[in-house]
Amino acid sequence: MRLLFLILLLSVWAAPAHPHKPSDSYLTFSAQGDHVSGQWDIALRDLDYAIGLDADGTGEITWGEVKAKHKEIAAYALARLVIGADGVSCPITVTEHLIDNHSDGAYEVMRLTADCLAVPRVLSIKYTLFFDVDPQHKGLLRLEDQGGTHTAVFSPNHETWQLEAYLVALKRQFLDFFQTGVWHIWTGFDHILFLCALLLPAVLELRGGKWQAVTTFRRAFVDVISIVTAFTIAHSITLSLAVLGFITLPSRLIESTIAASVIVAALNNLYPLIEKRLWVVAFVFGLVHGLGFANVLTDLGLPRSALAVSLVSFNLGVEAGQLVIVATFLPLAYLSRRSWLYPRLALGAGSLSIAAVASVWLIERSLDIGIFS
């Protein structure tokens, strides 16, 4: 069955993957006249993959190992960053190396300065870090100047950013964070598996203790819409509250709870305790998933002036990506529902596979270990 194959494939693919934070780096700059200064935060795990930091092969990167590679890190990174003034490159100097912890691990922090020949009429930044080894990588920029705060997202399809007129920059910011939201949900494997676990029984109903196919598409559609709507409302609430700073919880607690939510949703298909109103489950656990989504924007540290557009466009991107997943899943499930294989394989084996993968995540996150690494 195609649906079962997709679920099992996703479960195997998702097992070694990080659930919510694909590869990102953070550029925080300030432009004053002909001088640009700031810092660049790059994940140690990404640098280790690109140039090798773990010299003793223990799986843990120490400060000594990072310090020994400072020159190599700077050379590698600066070869992939260009700050320009009116088409002329501004020489970049690394003034300090530090280590900082983000929600998804330790980061190399490079303090930078760039001095241009003159005050630029057009300031540009070209970013190509890791694009040759990881096309999913993103660079998140926050730049402050006398005119306010500007944000952008660098990707293989958008390597160059320019300080532009307000409306042009606003449009670019909206599109950047919308695309980031779409991609974030498509690489958020625990979110996808949670949705799959909730949606698998949507085309079935329990009759006499056995799963039977629903009689109409409308019945399945209403169930799916109620689940997706509840989940959307819930994670939108906590995403907004977390980004605005009203909720702050330890990342390990959030990620562990998300893994537990996937297990609960999957096991409920095997041993149904909640047969109807699965939208309640979607809403309750959706509140926690929203905190996981917030990591991208909270780590960027957006100021209030740039927050509204980034938050709205990112959330809309998440919802658009989610709708694509549901629109792909529901027709396949509905067409397969009458097969005797669906309740046994798609629902049974699929839910079991989802629970197994999520159990590995729960162990990894709660104990802070890497089973697959």
- How much of the sequence lies in strands comes to 15-25%
Strand pairing plus helix content: what structural class? alpha+beta
The coarse silhouette is: elongated
Number of helices: 12
Secondary structure: helix percent: 40-55%
Describe the protein in words.
The protein has 373 residues and is of the alpha+beta class. The chain folds into two domains: 2-19 and 188-367; 24-173, no CATH class. It is 53% helix and 21% strand. The chain contains twelve helices and twelve strands. The chain has helices at residues 2-14, 44-51, 63-68, 70-78, 166-186, 189-199, 217-243, 251-270, 278-293, 295-300, 304-336, 341-367; strands at residues 24-32, 35-43, 81-85, 88-89, 92-102, 105-115, 123-127, 138-145, 148-154, 160-162, 204-207, 210-213. The strands form three sheets. The chain has a six-stranded mixed β-sheet with strand order 5-6-2-1-8-9, sandwiched between helices. Strands 4-3-7-10 form a four-stranded antiparallel β-sheet, with no helix packed on it. A hairpin with a 2-residue loop joins β11 and β12. α8 runs antiparallel to α9. The longest helix has 33 residues, at 304-336.
Topology:
Elements: H1 2-14, E1 24-32, E2 35-43, H2 44-51, H3 63-68, H4 70-78, E3 81-85, E4 88-89, E5 92-102, E6 105-115, E7 123-127, E8 138-145, E9 148-154, E10 160-162, H5 166-186, H6 189-199, E11 204-207, E12 210-213, H7 217-243, H8 251-270, H9 278-293, H10 295-300, H11 304-336, H12 341-367
Parallel strand pairs: 1-8
Antiparallel strand pairs: 1-2, 2-6, 3-4, 3-7, 5-6, 7-10, 8-9, 11-12
Helix pairs in contact: 1-6, 1-12, 5-11, 6-8, 6-11, 6-12, 7-9, 7-11, 8-9, 8-12
